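Bench notes, afternoon.
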Amino acid sequence: MPFFLCVFFILGCFCREWLQEFSNSAILLPKQLFKFEILMGQQMSDLTKLFPSGSWCIEESVGYLLARARTKLVKAVDLELTRYDITHAQGSLVMMLSTGRYATAAELVRDLYIDSASMTRMIDRLEKRGLIIRTPSVSDRRVINLSLSQAGTQLAEQLQPLFGDILNRHFIDFSKEEVDTLKGLLRKLLETEVPAAAKETP
């Protein structure tokens, strides 16, 4: 049964139960009527949501699909990066530093959604391998700037076509227009100002 029909069927059952409950009364008592209006309002409000409560299905879950897609790409990248003895997270860090848009661990933590402790360990490993250079900031000695070493820059040049090849193989059934649409939708999701969760009333 289509989802919207299921919703209307449930609402119909809900209304029928309320009508049966009060069928012996000439009128609804004010308190009962108020309760009825609140519950019906909650049901109708749920219909306006993109993801109504009680409708979760793993095969149709946007979060699940995004996570599966990311896992699929991460596995492919990790497999290809074994030749360089680095992980996809380390490779992503190298690629982000190569853009010149990131200079500190804090900036990388913000965009990679990695906790500070994990980021520090990853930077330590890459520095030990001679791929990253730590330099105290001239304007603020408390800030440590990050940059790629010559070896790190060479690695980034090798990773760029590798990442491109992985994406080309995984998006082989997509048109350019579909890829552009997907990127636009993902950017919209990332840029959306998420409202605070509504507090539950006791």
